[in-house]
Amino acid sequence: MGISAKFAAILLLPVALAACTGSDDGRSITYTDDRGVANQPYPNNYRTELLAFMKTYLNDPRGVHDSAMAEPVQRVVGGRLRYVSCLRFTPRESDGSYRESRERAVLYVDSRLDRVVENAAETCAGAVYAPFPELEKMTR
Fold it and tell me: What is the pLDDT of residues 61-106, one digit of tens each?
């Protein structure tokens, strides 16, 4: 009887856990009140936050060339309304050379930098870029 009860408990555990993750209204789990459909607050400190992030994102933040950034605009990304700022830059490689320019989409949630999307061609289509000299002046 003891082995049968353990076996039954092992079989029923995934069912019980699945019932716990479901909710009555079918909403997904989120850490903010944002459900992706409401207007987001504008990220006023986006330039400062982006520079701080890029210092950690790049292996060597010195020597960045051809940097340009688009002001944040609201776009739907992954089914959620977000402020997105597009960034173009050419980082210096570890051997000191430069390769092709990179384009990244920077997403903001609740007016804070949330993440950087590396495959930004679709998200940044039609972005209006302006020079971003602060990125080229970064140090370690």
Answer: 888 999 999 999 999 988 899 999 999 999 988 888 888 899 999 9
Residue that has been written with the tokens 């069912």 in this structure: 15
Give the count of alpha carbons within 13 A of 130, CB side only.
Answer: 6
Is 24 within 8 Å of 100 (Cβ atoms)?
no
Contact indicator for 137, 74 with CB cutoff of 8 Å = no
Strand, coil or helix: 136: helix
- φ, ψ for residue 34 (rounded to 5)? -65, 125
- Give the DSSP H or E segment for 47: helix 46-57
User: Considering Cα of 44, then 45, then 50, then 53, what sign does the dihedral take?
Assistant: negative
Tokens for 75? 């776009």
pTM: 0.71
Query: Taking the CA of residue 128 as centre, how many other CA atoms within 13 Å lie in the half-sphere pointing to its CB?
Result: 3
Q: Find out whether 120 and 102 touch, Cβ atoms under 8 Å.
A: no
Half-sphere exposure of 92 (CA within 13 A, CB side): 14
